[in-house]
Each structure stands twice: as C-alpha cells, then as structure tokens.
Design a protein that fits this description.
Radius of gyration: 25 Å
Oligomer: single chain
Number of helices: 14
Shape: globular
Largest sheet: 7 strands, mixed
Structural class: alpha+beta
Helix content: 25-40%
Length: 381
C-alpha cells in the first residue's frame, strides 16, 4: 500500500494507524451476526473449556457442518472431560469413525486422561499450560485460552489467515507469511473492558475470545475463499485488497506439492453375514482403526505383488477381483485400492490377529472412510 501523503510504500504493520476503529467495528458486527454453534455459549455466558477444547480438536482440518453432529454425539456420551478421561480409546475411536485424521482422536483421549489425572478435571488456563497437554499445539492453545479463559491472545486459523491477508494485502505466500499474519491479527483484538477487574484467568477482562470468533465468522460467512461479500464486511472501508480489486488472489500460496500415487489391494472376506476385520497398528496412519485385510500401500505396487499379501483363510479357493478401483486422498498422497472378494464356509476360523464381525454391526466399528468405501465396493453396495 502507498501512502498518498508521502509516496512511501507501507509495511502492513505500519498501516495500523489507519485502522484504530477495526476492533470495535468487528465486535459490533459479531454482536449482531454471530453464528449459532453447538459449542458456543449464548451472549453473556461463559464458555465451557471442555466444549471449546472438544470443538477445536474436531475442527482441525474439518468443516463446521461435518463437526456439528459428532460434537453433539460426543457431548451426549461424555458430557465432561472427567467422563471422557474414563472412556476406553477403542470407544473413542468408534465414536470418531468417519471424522478423519484419526491421530486427533488418539490425542483427544490422551489429553482427557491427562486433564483428569494431572489437573483434577480442570484445564490449565494459560497457553503455556495448555500446550503441555497431548494434541494441543500453538493455535489450539491460543483458541482455548482466548475463548474459554479470556486471555488476550489471537488464534489464527484458515479463516483468519484469509481475512487478515486480504485486509492488509500480505504479499508473502503461505506458509512463510504466518508470523506476519499472526502479528497483524493481534492488532484486531478488542479493547479490555472498563475497569481493572481481573478475570478468572488473571488477565484484565477482555473480549479476546469474541474478537477471535468474530474473525472466524467473518471468514466463514463474508470473506469466503471465492466471491467474498465485501459490501457486507464491517472492515471493507480500508481493506487494501478490496480497494485494489484483487481480494480473491489472497492469501498468496506457494505451489502445493502432491505426493505420489500409492496403490494396493484390499480383501473383503465374508462368512455368511460376517466380515473379516483386523485392527491397524496403534501408531502410524489410521492408527488403531479397523480395516479389512490388505496389502502394503506402495508407489510401485503391482497387482500380482499385492495379491500375494492376501490373508490365508481356510476355505478360499480363489479370489474374485471387483471391477474398478477405490480411490481416496490422504493429506500427503492419493491412494488406489483394487478390491478382491471371497466367501468362506460358516465354520472357517479367523486368521490370527483378525476377527469376524457381523455386517449389521459395522456401524459400531472404528472404520475410516477409506475402509467404508472398500467394504461398500466389495459387498456390491
């Protein structure tokens, strides 16, 4: 941005003198247009740290519409961190099935256990204390500290990155721009409330949590990735990218690197109304989740090599290859699976480390989405 008075090219941080009213404008907009979300308390009510934490873990790399039903299901089953900390990891994984990124579920359980055992069922109220817990990184710690405890800090998620990068026209691409965006986002924190009363967390009372949630809501409803509704934005009067007309080009992003395609085979074995399943190793991709037996997933996997990794089950005379392949995209690589099927007599035992599960009971299994696709394809659904 160029100052009309001096012709000097301004660093985004130097633009703050032009935006002193932004925090108040943002909060006024939020008070009128805040989203109603299952984990968000009513205006004037204190946020429940457990609900904030649970929702923030679920919302990592997952949209609000998808998370809503899972959040309500978890809250009905485990209404507080004490209850969740007493649950088994298997039960948590089953409830999480379908939400994806399953390391979050393992960390969720580990964190609940730690809060229950080490903190007496109460979350630490500082970013430093929160970051010491399993599965809580810098963003999540800041979000919980601001929203649940009123700490004067600004968490920066994807929505906030987009709003801030457009507002200040941040030219540096992500992820290199993250530190600058963090600094700029902090300038949008609302003022402390009147007086010097101390909050439960020890800070001056502020609306830091509301400021953060206002930016999140603004990015989700107004400052969207495509065709943002700039005319409705409370910050549009001095949004640099809007004034230039290139708002949809922000945030700048470095070219994304896509992992090489991996291939493998999956084996759908039925015994009457039962399906053969096993559990994946606790550590690694989809750790602890249920799956049908399968081959390794390799870049150079060929069908003959994959078929040699089929499970040995008494009664299988030959494997039937299903037409087509099952495709799935993980964060770091795409996957193609060939599906083979077989049916065995009613008394055939399960191989070591595997088990027969009634097909009607698969809803209670911790099956990731890729395995649900495989089973549906294998069973002809």
């Amino acid at each position: 941005m160029i100052s009309s008075a001096t012709g000097h090219k301004l660093n985004p941080l130097e633009q703050d003198q032009f935006g002193a009213a932004r925090p108040a404008l943002l909060l006024a907009w939020y008070d009128r247009h805040r989203r109603v979300l299952p984990w968000r308390p009513q205006p004037g009510e204190r946020a429940d740290p457990y609900c904030v934490w649970l929702s923030e873990i679920m919302l990592q790399q997952t949209g609000v519409k998808t998370v809503g039903p899972y959040f309500e299901k978890f809250l009905a089953r485990w209404p507080d961190v004490e209850a969740l900390g007493r649950a088994s990891l298997d039960d948590v994984l089953r409830m999480w099935a379908g939400l994806g990124y399953y390391s979050r579920a393992r960390n969720l359980h580990a964190c609940a256990v730690a809060v229950r055992r080490e903190y007496g069922g109460g979350f630490p109220d500082t970013e430093q204390g929160l970051r010491a817990l399993p599965g809580i990184g810098p963003y999540t710690a800041a979000a919980i500290a601001a929203i649940a405890f009123g700490r004067r800090t600004m968490p920066v998620d994807g929505n906030i990155e987009r709003v801030v990068s457009r507002l200040f026209a941040v030219e540096e691409p992500l992820p290199q721009a993250k530190p600058l965006i963090q600094q700029l986002a902090a300038t949008l924190l609302g003022p402390t409330r009147a007086g010097n009363e101390k909050s439960r967390a020890g800070d001056e009372k502020s609306r830091a949590g509301d400021s953060a949630q206002a930016l999140m809501d603004l990015g989700a409803s107004i400052c969207t990735p495509k065709k943002p509704a700039c005319a409705l934005c409370p910050l549009n009067s001095d949004c640099v990218s809007r004034l230039r007309g290139d708002q949809e080009t922000y945030p700048r992003k470095a070219p994304k690197k896509t992992g090489a395609l991996r291939r493998g085979a999956a084996f759908v074995v039925t015994r009457g109304d039962r399906l053969l399943l096993r559990s994946r190793p606790d550590k690694g991709l989809l750790g602890g989740m249920s799956e049908v037996p399968g081959s390794d997933w390799l870049n150079a996997q060929d069908d003959k090599a994959a078929l040699k990794q089929a499970p040995f089950v008494k009664g299988i005379a030959r494997w039937h290859r299903k037409a087509g392949v099952v495709t799935h995209v993980f964060t770091h690589f795409p996957l193609e699976l060939v599906v083979y099927t077989a049916n065995v007599p009613g008394l055939a035992p399960a191989p070591e480390g595997m088990r027969w599960v009634e097909i009607s009971a698969l809803g209670g299994e911790a099956l990731p989405n890729v395995m649900r696709k495989v089973i549906a394809h294998g069973l002809g659904e």
